[in-house]
Here is the input.
Amino acid sequence: MTVAATIRIQEADFDVAQEIAGLSKDRTDIGAVVSFSGICRGSEQGEPIAALVLEHYPGMAEAEIERHADEALARWPLQGLTIIHRFGRIAPGENIVLVVTASAHRHAAFEAAEFLMDYLKTNAPFWKREESRRGTSWIEATDHDDAATARWTKP
Amino acid sequence: MKVKYFAWVRERIGKAEETVEPPADVRTVGDLIGWLSARGETYAYAFEKPKVIRAAIDHAHVKADAMIAGAREIAFFPPMTGG
Here is the structure.
């Protein structure tokens, strides 16, 4: 069976529990569902923030996430996959991103979810800006994230 | 061709997109960064560290040595911080 990934890039918040339940509803071939939720923290490097504002590249964001979803579906035996990424202003405590993977067994679901998150961090065209009392500033990319992505590249 | 800018590259240049017609000797993404940088102070500031700048041609990531011939849309932006 061909598995189609559900990919949504949206400004509105989403219901994590509903997305997780939706992936395995009325299915008996799924034995494992792994979900990762990225949530807006209330502080960055010890400083309180009012919100994150996410800019994205419409068109490329969808294309890039689809490419990585296709790669995940090719590398792991997944039965279902949902990726949601928000843009716009996101307050502390709100969802930013969700990756849900479903498979017959846990290893594929865990690995695919981690692979997708590592790639989303470094390759999906989104940019975070933080709003605080001191004004707004762009969040800088970290070498740590690049290293996390690099480990999935086949030798 | 259409050129798009995002995040602080967009802020420094002062516009989100524009249409440009570089001369024929501007062949690669790196050449285009050099040509754009010479257009004025705002561009020079945006591209002051060209190694930091990421680029995409028609919605796919490319390196600085990628050829721009035939490109419909080229985008320049800082390293991504989504997820």
